[in-house]
Amino acid sequence: MSLRGKAAIAGIGEFKPVRYTEGATTLGMLAEVARLAVADAGLEFGEVDGLITENFAEAPFMAPSTVVEYLGLRAKFAEVVDLGGATGAGMVWRAAAAIAAGMCETVVCVTASRREQRTTSGPRRSASSGFSGRRVDRTPYSDFEVPFGAIGANYGYALIAKRYMHEYGVTPEQLAKIAVAQRYNACHNPNALFFGQPITIDDVLNSPVIVDPLHMLEIVMPVAGAAAVVVTSAARAKKLKHPPVYLLGAGEHTTHRSITYAPSLTHTAIEAAADAAFRMAGVRRKDVDLASIYDCYTITVLLSLEDAGFAKKGRGGKFVDEHNLQFDGDFPLNPHGGQLSFGQAGVAGGMSHVTEAARQLMGRAQGRQVKKPRLAFVNGNGGIMSEQVSLILGRDN
Amino acid sequence: MTEPAAAAYLKPLPEPTPATKPFWDAAREHRLLLQRSKQTGQFLYYPREVSPFGPQDELEWAEVSGRGSVYSFTVARRPTAPQWADDVPYVIAIVELEEGPHLTANIVGCPPGAVFIGQPVVASFEDVTPEVTLVQFRPATGGGSTPAP
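YS: structure for the whole thing
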């Protein structure tokens, strides 16, 4: 059974990212963004019979039923997806699979991330807290990466960039161009964090190196925010108010948790995920009108363009040189500004690639609308190139 | 803060499990001990209770050379976590051991600017506490070397 055309995105909810929240609860944010998406689809809560949520700290277990109860849903399907930045894309095909299997008809997929100021600017951790204290996580990562300062994502993407430069070569200017094009897009999106703040290649290259070779402006800004979509059967989607955005193809691939153990630093799991998605959709790379590609770092975009098959391996830099990546260019990439310029609201940042692709295909992207797109490629990337989910979304099924 | 100069080690430490204890015990003796497949001899890092090489496979311990080369690296110019604030700039690297496995460590014993991909390195055992020795790596030729032609 293929999922091709069985389900469609019928509604979108999204918050404008902010640097910090004050007193907000993740549950409240999840509920509000779910409400926005269901209302956007023109549905009532009683017409939603499935829910997929991300994990959130306040509900370390039974998160789905917590959200279901809060919204007063009667869910025939309720689950958590935990794929880091690939969570949003992973939710969409799982929703479609549940619908295609007849388990339910309409699923709301929700992500939200709060961010209190004190969590990042508070006093330095003492030795008895955090990683070295009595901790609940006990994974190989905590024993074989953390003691070496191999913590967070920055260092891992720097290791990838260094190795890529060694094997294939890409110039700092080529990587910077990706960030600049996305900032241009963000300057056409009033909801983007960096709206009204254009940058140049020199700005990127003159920003401080955080982890060699990555500059500050090549690294996402953590923010708070929320994003949700309503996925419903193709039959129901046709009766709703927006043009259906059909799920035409999906692929998923995961190989490692820590970058140390990745099968390759320069050939990523996107190859397998994207191949599966294109095969299911039965479309070619050149048929794609816009790419909504996870962009925690510029190097992530470069590798994604290659491994998803838009550029040959090792030619990503040249591809960036030869194409205009702006929403009004010949290869529209992340028209909302990408997470680099829209903001990365935790897992909701990954979902923003789904919401933006859907918005564009529905023709609702206003000042940054790509000209009449019919087909979009979406990629979600979790961890350090750990979890990959590729989707093909389209107006025609 | 008015702690004595020989302050406690403040960085996060590994917590040995039954599966990893032989590795950490050997490190304390400044030996690098890895698991390998009984079926194929293929080496593995990190130590596990189950062989990832196949459901019929078993793992055995073997001492390895500690020699390898830098597979990739980055120079952290901002700390990757608060406990490393006083260490910048420092090198986080993936080392490819002579026996095959990749591991993550810091490259010590040479300036960050002297590290390069392909650089020969050798294990450098750092006794960070009486109980824990970390397996770091330093240039095999004593630092400041240049890339091989």
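YS: worth flagging: The mean pLDDT of chain B is 92.
IM: good catch. Also The CA atoms of residues 114 and 145 of chain B lie 7 Å apart.
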